[in-house]
Structure to design on (1459 residues):
């Protein structure tokens, strides 16, 4: 049997007897049979894998593990509009293919590569099933525009905006269909995508049928159970009674109940999931195909949350006219069914009075115990709601359908075989709708008598791209040129109907607002020249011109150039004898990429918008739907990021040790930032405009090794570490030393309170806090802070900028060991230097939680024994915590049972633990908080999964 | 290939909106709505201004807070940002509530400028708008000028030396120049006088729209405070314009005081200019929603206010309560206190039960029926920004301050008209009045109607030791604060955005 380094059988491997022309191929389950003469040596080869030679000796069975070839710089890498040999690359491109993906219950594509790529930081937003992740490639290059990378699926740039009814636009792609995940990190690689590439580009290619494939059926099923890892410590009923009796007044003491309810235990559960996939690959009528279907059902650990995905994909890859016309047809369809839990229950479970029972033994409010105003017998408007009631009394369901398809024609001109013409036509449509129902008796919506609402959205995106590619080996001058020139047009349109807000008895609470159908179009021309001299000196230059309907005709077009050079030092004669060194390459690149995702389709136009029926104004006896002139910036234009990149690629010992060291600097100018407009000069007080600049600098280091390689055994070990530092270098049209910056980062507790700030000279989203003063016992003194400006008073001017949420250093470590039929692997990730504002703690460590509340008591956390604050002290740096961590993302085990059912199928079993453990000093539930403000986030569970793969 | 010139299909552009005369009133309605709601979606969504919670951002809510929380009439028990600074009187130029007020004022001004710019006679005729449509447009334009003058008046009163823009300044990236307080006073005066004859006669316009009476009342206020604004008293002018209001005979005192603050107060003939609200069609988390909900807490029954629950925020200080000799409301019915479970003294501002609550604003009709919102969130009650009682008291004060054109007998009569209404007869009548009486009577009659800060400044009581109230200056017994606090600071954000601006002294 021939297997991949993760233990999966590898079909289609060429097995050849050395020195002869005799050979065979492995079948669908990786098995081969061949008769060999004595003392024969077998050569195993496969595209993308390192060749391996094994002397047969007197063995009857020779099992081989073919290691991934990415280290040997021989493979072909997907790049923007084409492919390139790795050895010819000049830009910073990292790719991960299927066998190196994270294992287990992976629901979203981006989770496949978490921790696998230097410079790429993937933070799941929460433990919500189907929830998305924050992807940051080399830090965020923007303040207010999007910091998400561009995602290109099988050559189709996707619309990254959210889809109503789905918490993550990427979750429509079944990870099981993905073959490779390629990240274009620097401008030289990404600039071919011009105006949308400032935050990097992710190219996803899906699995395809291959020419000559025999019928192959793969079935996999994975069952998993998710469990809450820990609960936030809160006071128990008894502890809370003691505290209120000590600290509360008579009225408050009278509110105490007699129960001991652990509300967090009540809202979470062990959740079960199944993921089933069936794929068929083969060739029919000379057309290679791959058809797959997947069905995933995932329960969330927060009761009532659920995510279901049914996906199907068809890929046809016929070739015509002697392979001169290559056709790629991909169709994918996905239906996602969500039930969203009321995540307010998470905070409510922390805050709800633990001395009260779950049920009231009455018919009121569905039987759930609620805090009631005796004057009206209605639920108190300001009180915390019964957490279990919030969950069970809300049916929030959505169905989102999305289809992405493309037809790519690649034609090699018969009269000029060096020239290829490529045409790619694609669509991406989605249609989603949902319903929200809350019964009349639910306390959460008692005053309005329930909710019975619907919503929907449709999106239609189309893409037309075509390019010409000319490749010529100019052997006379030892050169090779590769020229690409193309055109692209994308049109994005959404239909957002509006619906009335209705209660259960049919009363319209708010009539439907104004529907909208925003749209925008991008038109681009791009070109690239690759020149290679003696296979040693490489030059790449690209240019893209982008036109966006989002900008005024004067600012509409942006030009994004890049250039890079590389030197394959290993190819130099003086290194020809350096045997241990198998590759050495130096790369230098510079380029400009852009950002046009300004969250609004018409920011430059002077528009007038109608008010909704609920924001009318009475003139006389008539209510008038008003017309509002919108603020606008006629001059708004591209944000531009210039990237410098320097790198060394290295490989030793025939690629058993390989890796890359990179240095980069990204300077963003014309930064799109929301800033105050001079009062009186525009029809708004703040506007998104091009102002200021931002810098990201970093170092990436990656090393992949194969410490052990032998017959039947292989151990791959990969490590990557990234250092990234970001700083705002300008933030106003006219720099002003008195500018404190822009307050951001709203927190819970007090309306409009913010904890972060953008200031020139500091990292983005720096925390802006008071420096806490402590007593001799090390306990914080309420309201006493360092008077930094020494004016004798504590005012907001005494706040200082301290730490920031982004990690300064992040790393990933992956290991995969295969021995005969067993394999074991793990992936670890770590973040260092990232701080989190513990908003749960800051809002639950003062007596005000129960002393100033109105007719009900709210629970506190044990931290109150240390603070003993009377009132919340939100802005104290006491609540800022070092959230550095190391997380064991995944431990996986696999066993190849071998052939079953009369040798017709191969069976493989896998076991996984995801989120096995986290090492951190952070005191909250989870140190990994996208954005750095921890406020009752849906906790990430630990997942145990068992899987079975069957290949026919 | 498609075009890159895409335009929205469910919205209008400035090029198209003014071609249709039917749109003019819709834009005008936005100028009025800017005082009431937070944006184009009620109660929240599509905000007019950003950088602050939408409910907090409304014009009326901020105006009320700036005018009341800074005084003896109100404290608020919420820990929102630098909100406590209002009552502690230690605000800085970074205060987000002061910024929100300032931003609202300039939002209104630029909105009005846009409309005024687009409705000149030249532009109307170039678009072929004539006849009744043109007549209407001219009246709309005069009202827009009134609304701009009203907001500039608030800027004059609260910020003093401020950026100055008119219809001549189209939106774009330019830096408005700073005007002086005197210059701005003269501009507001000239604007109000210029439109005086263009506006509709008192109470002859549609409800909610400004008329001559509104312009006259605003002029009266402007003149009464001229000493503060310009250093030169204009009391005679104040009397002149108060007389115009009173002698128009269009207005009459509402027979029952409480009715001025109920869900059907739109029927009142006393109100000269109101900001209108509606439980179903004009929804906001600011405005009257705030004024009805925020004072309800403790053991108060929300049903008695026509709402679904209180927000447990606003109460009064002892100094204000003591303006009434009888807090029960049995003698002076204007004493609308809720004392059950409340203490007179405030030992902790964050605790609702500290300080008497006030029951002035309700979402109940005269008949005691709750307003139209089935949820009980959004009141129908309108805010009486300008009303006849204020004009009476301004008249009396201007006479006492030496203005001519009026007399003390009439002044005393006007004051006693208010007291007769309050006492339900002559039992509360006074036989003489002086300035001290006027400032206290203004508190009794006009409390929580957003006059107090201006009044205390005019009487020299706002910052000084001459009058302290609990927690003035951030200490329980109260203390004087710096005199420069009679003006709010220009927000730091605008000083950064606009290098033409100089900060008010002291900040």
């Amino acid at each position: 049997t021939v297997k991949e380094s993760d233990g999966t059988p590898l079909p289609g491997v060429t097995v050849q007897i050395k020195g002869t022309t005799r050979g065979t191929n492995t079948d669908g389950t990786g098995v081969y049979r061949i008769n060999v003469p004595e003392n024969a040596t077998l050569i195993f080869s496969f595209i993308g894998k390192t060749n391996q030679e094994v002397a047969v000796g007197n063995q009857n069975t020779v099992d081989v593990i073919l290691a991934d070839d990415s280290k040997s710089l021989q493979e072909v890498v997907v790049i923007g509009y084409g492919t390139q040999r790795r050895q010819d690359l000049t830009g910073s491109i990292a790719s991960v293919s299927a066998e190196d993906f994270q294992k287990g219950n992976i629901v979203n594509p981006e989770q496949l590569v978490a921790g696998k790529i230097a410079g790429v930081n993937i933070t799941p937003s929460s433990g919500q099933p189907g929830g998305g992740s924050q992807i940051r490639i080399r830090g965020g290059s923007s303040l207010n525009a999007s910091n998400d990378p561009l995602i290109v699926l099988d050559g189709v740039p996707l619309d990254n905006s959210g889809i109503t009814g789905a918490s993550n636009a990427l979750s429509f792609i079944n990870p099981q269909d993905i073959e490779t995940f390629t990240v274009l990190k620097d401008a030289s690689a990404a600039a071919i995508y011009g105006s949308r590439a400032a935050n990097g580009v992710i190219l996803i290619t899906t699995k395809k049928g291959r020419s000559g494939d025999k019928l192959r059926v793969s079935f996999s099923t994975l069952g998993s159970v998710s469990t809450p890892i820990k609960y936030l410590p809160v006071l128990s009923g008894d502890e809370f009674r003691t505290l209120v009796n000590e600290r509360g007044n008579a009225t408050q003491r009278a509110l105490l109940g007699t129960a001991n309810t652990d509300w967090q235990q009540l809202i979470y559960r062990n959740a079960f999931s199944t993921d089933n996939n069936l794929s068929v690959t083969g060739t029919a009528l000379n057309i290679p195909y791959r058809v797959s279907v997947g069905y995933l059902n995932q329960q969330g650990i927060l009761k009532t949350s659920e995510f279901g995905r049914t996906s199907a994909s068809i890929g046809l890859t016929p070739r015509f006219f002697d392979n001169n016309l290559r056709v790629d047809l991909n169709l994918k369809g996905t239906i996602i069914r969500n039930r969203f839990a009321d995540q307010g229950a998470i905070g409510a479970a922390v805050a709800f009075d633990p001395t009260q029972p779950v049920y009231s033994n009455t018919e009121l409010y569905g039987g759930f115990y609620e805090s009631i105003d005796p004057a009206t017998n209605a639920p108190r408007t300001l009180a915390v709601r019964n957490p279990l009631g919030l969950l069970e009394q809300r049916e929030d369901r959505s169905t989102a359908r999305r289809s992405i398809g493309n037809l790519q024609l690649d034609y090699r001109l018969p009269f000029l075989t060096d020239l290829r013409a490529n045409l790619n036509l694609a669509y991406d449509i989605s249609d989603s709708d949902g319903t929200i129902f809350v019964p009349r008796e639910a306390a959460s919506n008692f005053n309005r008598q329930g909710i019975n609402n619907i919503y929907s959205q449709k999106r239609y995106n189309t893409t037309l791209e075509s390019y010409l590619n000319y490749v010529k080996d100019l052997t006379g001058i030892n050169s090779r040129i590769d020229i690409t020139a193309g055109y692209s047009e994308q049109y994005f349109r959404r239909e957002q109907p509006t619906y009335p807000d209705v209660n259960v008895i049919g009363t319209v609470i708010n009539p439907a607002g104004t529907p909208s159908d925003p749209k925008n179009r991008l038109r681009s021309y791009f070109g690239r020249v690759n020149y290679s001299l003696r296979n040693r000196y490489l030059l790449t230059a690209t240019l893209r011109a982008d036109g966006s309907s989002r900008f005024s005709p004067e600012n509409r077009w942006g030009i994004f150039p890049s250039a890079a050079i590389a030197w394959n030092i290993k190819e130099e004669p003086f290194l020809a004898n350096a045997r241990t060194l198998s590759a050495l390459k130096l790369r230098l690149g510079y380029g400009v990429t852009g950002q046009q995702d300004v969250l609004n389709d018409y920011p430059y136009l002077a528009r007038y918008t109608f008010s909704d029926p609920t924001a009318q104004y009475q003139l006389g006896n008539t209510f008038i739907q008003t017309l509002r002139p919108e603020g606008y910036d006629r001059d708004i234009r591209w944000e531009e990021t210039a990237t410098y990149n320097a790198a060394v690629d290295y490989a030793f010992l025939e690629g058993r040790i390989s890796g890359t060291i990179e240095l980069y600097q990204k300077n963003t100018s014309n930064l799109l930032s929301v800033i105050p407009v001079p009062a009186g000069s525009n029809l708004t007080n703040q506007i998104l405009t091009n102002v200021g600049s931002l810098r990201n600098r970093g170092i990436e280091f990656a090393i992949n090794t194969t410490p052990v390689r032998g017959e039947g055994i292989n151990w791959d070990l990969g490590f990557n570490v990234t250092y990234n530092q970001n700083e705002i270098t300008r933030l106003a049209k006219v720099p002003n030393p008195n500018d404190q910056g822009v307050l951001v980062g709203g927190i819970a507790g007090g309306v409009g309170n913010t904890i972060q700030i953008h200031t020139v000279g500091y990292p983005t989203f720096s925390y802006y806090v008071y420096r806490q003063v402590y007593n001799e016992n090390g306990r914080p003194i309420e309201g006493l802070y360092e008077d930094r400006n020494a004016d004798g008073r504590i005012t907001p001017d005494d706040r200082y900028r301290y730490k920031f949420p982004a990690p300064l250093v992040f790393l990933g470590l992956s290991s995969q060991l295969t021995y005969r039929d067993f394999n074991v692997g793990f992936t670890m990730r770590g973040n260092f230097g990232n701080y989190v504002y513990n908003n749960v703690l800051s809002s639950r460590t003062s007596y005000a939680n129960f002393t100033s509340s109105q007719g009900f008591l709210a629970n506190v956390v044990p931290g109150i024994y240390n603070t003993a604050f009377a009132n919340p002290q939100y802005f104290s740096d006491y609540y800022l915590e070092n959230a550095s961590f190391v997380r064991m993302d995944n431990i996986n085990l696999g066993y190849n049972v071998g052939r079953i059912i009369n040798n017709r199928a191969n069976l493989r079993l896998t076991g996984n633990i995801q989120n096995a453990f986290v090492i951190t000093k952070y005191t909250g539930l989870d140190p990994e908080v996208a954005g750095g403000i921890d406020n009752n986030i849906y906790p990430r569970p630990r997942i145990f999964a068992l899987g079975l793969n069957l290949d026919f | 290939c498609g075009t890159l010139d895409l335009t929205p299909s469910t919205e209008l552009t400035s090029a198209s909106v003014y071609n249709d005369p039917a749109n003019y009133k819709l834009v005008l309605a936005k100028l009025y709505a800017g005082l009431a709601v937070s944006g184009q979606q009620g109660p929240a969504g599509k905000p007019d201004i950003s950088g602050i919670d939408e409910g907090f951002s409304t014009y009326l809510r901020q105006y009320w807070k700036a005018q009341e929380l800074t005084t003896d009439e109100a404290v608020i028990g919420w820990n929102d940002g630098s909100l406590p600074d209002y009552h502690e009187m230690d605000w800085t130029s970074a205060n987000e509530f002061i910024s929100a007020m300032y931003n609202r004022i300039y939002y209104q001004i630029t909105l009005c400028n846009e409309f005024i710019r687009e409705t000149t006679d030249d532009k109307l005729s170039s678009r072929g708008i004539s006849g009744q449509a043109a007549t209407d447009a001219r009246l709309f334009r005069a009202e827009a000028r009134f609304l701009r003058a009203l907001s500039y008046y608030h800027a004059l009163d609260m910020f003093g030396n401020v950026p100055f823009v008119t219809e001549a300044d189209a939106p774009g990236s330019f830096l408005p120049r700073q005007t002086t307080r005197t210059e701005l006073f003269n501009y507001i005066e000239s604007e109000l006088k210029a439109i005086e004859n263009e506006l509709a006669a008192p109470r002859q316009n549609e409800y909610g729209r400004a008329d001559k009476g509104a312009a006259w009342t605003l002029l009266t206020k402007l003149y009464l405070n001229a000493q503060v604004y310009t250093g030169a008293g204009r009391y005679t002018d104040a009397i002149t314009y108060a007389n115009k209001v009173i002698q128009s005979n269009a207005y009459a005192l509402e027979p029952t005081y409480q009715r001025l603050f109920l869900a059907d107060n739109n029927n009142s003939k006393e109100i000269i200019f109101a900001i209108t609200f509606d439980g179903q069609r004009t929804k906001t988390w600011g405005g009257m929603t705030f004024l009805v909900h925020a004072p309800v807490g403790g053991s108060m029954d929300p049903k008695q206010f026509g709402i679904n629950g209180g927000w447990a925020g606003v109460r009064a200080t002892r100094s204000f309560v003591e303006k009434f000799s009888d807090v029960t409301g049995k003698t002076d019915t204007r004493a609308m206190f809720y004392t059950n479970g409340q203490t007179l003294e405030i030992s902790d501002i964050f605790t609702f039960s500290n300080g008497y609550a006030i029951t002035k604003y309700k979402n109940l009709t005269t008949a005691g029926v709750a307003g139209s919102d089935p949820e009980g969130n959004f009141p129908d009650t309108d805010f009486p920004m300008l009303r006849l009682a204020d004009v009476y008291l301004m008249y009396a004060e201007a006479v006492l301050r030496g203005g001519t054109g009026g007399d003390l007998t009439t002044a005393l009569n006007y004051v006693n008209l208010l007291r007769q209404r309050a006492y339900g007869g002559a039992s509360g009548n006074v036989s003489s009045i002086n300035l001290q009486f006027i400032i206290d009577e203004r508190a009794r009659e006009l409390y929580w109607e957003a006059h107090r800060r201006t009044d205390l400044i005019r009487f020299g009581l706002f910052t000084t030791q001459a009058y302290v109230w609990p927690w003035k200056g951030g200490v329980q017994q109260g203390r004087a604060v710096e005199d420069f606090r009679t003006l709010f600071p220009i927000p730091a954000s605008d000083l950064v955005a606009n290098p033409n601006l100089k900060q008010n002294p002291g900040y």
Remarks:
- Chain B touches chain A through 113 residues (CB under 8 Å).
- Residues 279-381 of chain B form one domain.
- The beta strands of chain B are 12-13, 75-76, 163-164, 177-178, 271-275, 314-315, 337-338, 357-358, 383-387.
- The mean pLDDT of chain B is 95.
